[in-house]
Design goal:
Length: 95
């Protein structure tokens, strides 16, 4: 008679993927400064890397985002613009 017991497999550990938050900003922008504070806090709490890019130094970014700054990208995809919600950013990075 065949063994009908279930087969148990050891679960492989889940390795979190590398995440990257990008803040697209320009000098002298107070909303950009506010966005940076939120990004710094969330990324530090979660151990996520972040970077900033200046639209005055990149024509393509300027042409794409100049009316929306600050713009936040998560893994290269637009997450939000103008105001950054801490809870929403956390959810995007942990979900």
């Amino acid at each position: 008679m065949a063994d009908m017991s279930p087969i148990f497999r050891r679960k492989q550990p889940v390795v979190p993927r590398e995440r990257l938050v990008t803040l697209i900003r320009k000098p002298g922008c107070h909303l950009c400064d506010d966005a940076q504070l939120v990004i710094e806090k969330v990324c530090a709490d979660l151990g996520v890397s972040w970077e900033q890019k200046d639209i005055t130094q990149d024509k393509e970014l300027h042409d794409t985002y100049w009316e929306q700054i600050p713009v936040v990208l998560v893994d290269g995809e637009q997450h939000t613009f103008w105001r950054v919600d801490e809870g929403r950013l956390r959810k995007a990075l942990t979900g």
